[in-house]
Amino acid sequence: MSHKVLQTFQAHSWRICFLNIMLLCAFPLAGCGGSTPSVPVSQTINFSVSPKTLVAGQQATLTATASSGAPLTFSIDAQSNCTTCATISNSTLTATAAGSIMIDAVQSGITIDGVTYKPAEKTVTVTIAATSTASALSLDSEEFTVPQANGEVLIAVNRTMNTSDAVSVSYATKDGTAQAGTDYTAVSGTLHWASDDSSSKMVTVPIATGATSGSIRSFSFSLSSPTGLAVLGSTQSSTIFIEESTVSPSTDLQYDFSNWSLTLPIDSSGGTGGTGGQEFPVETITSSQLLAGFTDEFFYLDEDNNLIFTTPSNGAVTPTSSHTRSELREQYNGSNAIGDYEWDNTIGGTLHASCRVLANSVNSTQVTIGQIHGANIPIVMLQYRPSFEDVVAKIYSGTFFTSSYTLTSVASPLNFGDTINYTIAYSGDTLTLTINGIHSVFTIDRSWEGKPIYFKLGSYSGAPNTGNSSGDESQVSFSSFSVSH
Hints:
By secondary structure, this protein is mainly beta. The chain is built from two helices and 33 strands. The chain has three domains: 45-130, Immunoglobulin-like, CATH 2.60.40.1080; 135-243, CalX-beta domain (Immunoglobulin-like); 249-484, Jelly Rolls (Sandwich), CATH 2.60.120.200. It has helices spanning 3-26, 287-291, and strands at 45-50, 53-55, 59-66, 73-76, 86-89, 92-95, 99-107, 110-112, 115-117, 120-129, 135-139, 143-147, 152-161, 167-175, 188-193, 201-206, 216-227, 230-232, 237-243, 260-263, 299-301, 307-312, 325-330, 349-359, 367-373, 378-385, 390-396, 405-411, 419-427, 430-435, 438-443, 454-461, 473-484. The chain is elongated. The model is unreliable at 1-34 and 274-282 (pLDDT under 50).
């Protein structure tokens, strides 16, 4: 190639290269400070509704994901034959009426890390059946009672109306005055029926048989969240009353009721509100009744054979008192007995007892656990005072309602539940009190000489018998007691 030809070729080559460079800069693919234009790409949506068939009142869960990873929104398609048959909140659909609706899951388009995704949508059809075509799931009764001694309660869940589809329902217990873990065992779960299964399903709730409180306590059992073509029937919840077993104190031979009667805070109707406008417990439980096995919610043996006296603050009272009581009253029948099974200072008497105070009214500073009583007022009342953590002796100076009294702390400190071993001894003009080994001696006013008196023990509330909150009470547990003369 001649030198001239070579120069011509080189010149053309440089011109071609320059044109290429110019073209690249004018229409960049990459380089020259430019970038590749973004081309929108498609995205896919996975969308499901569970369940897809339901009835008014039921809910369905909407689950959807976009291949872009971007968030979606849900809405009722305007082309649905019923756009008001359901509502949507976040990812929950609530059926409100029968009909067929289309649910849209929409991703309206988005650019992520330089990649632009086209809008995408997917639709799922949901059928809301008429309530009349659904199964009805319900309980037998709104309330029923089970004896504690049964150890369990069986609760039937019934299926009626349409039974052609598979359905289910959830159930659970809930505390009332009965406490799970103490009075019964909490249960929860789901019951299932197959297609054409119309049988009743049974749920067992265990009932505690050990501890007794002498009262009726309750809890509830409820149905919820039916699935499939099912609705809750007319009885969706039941209250179960546990009729707690009480053990007769007479079954424990350490307690001798031969010379005792019992005064309770109940009236002639068995209630605690009095009768005929007067709140007098007009019926006294006799010694014969006690020996025959009398027991109730205010007087019973606990699981450790302790004798329990329970005194509701609101209740019937004796004619000379405005405070409720669950107390044994001595019936002295010695050959030298005077008055109404009573004795006097010349006969003398001693009461030994061991007790624990388990509860005291919030409207009272004390509860009386033992006393010597006369025709009108006591000689002495032995009282436990929670706020002072002590036992106090309330000693009256005379035999009349107007008589003054003194208060003397005779033992401390004593907390709720501590054992109180006490002795009340009276003879002549001398009263001797012994509390957990601590002795106190008092001289009694001579006006008590020859006056009929008797021992009492149990739970005598210091609260007024009206205006207290429901459930307010005093309670004393005795493990032993005895009297000698």
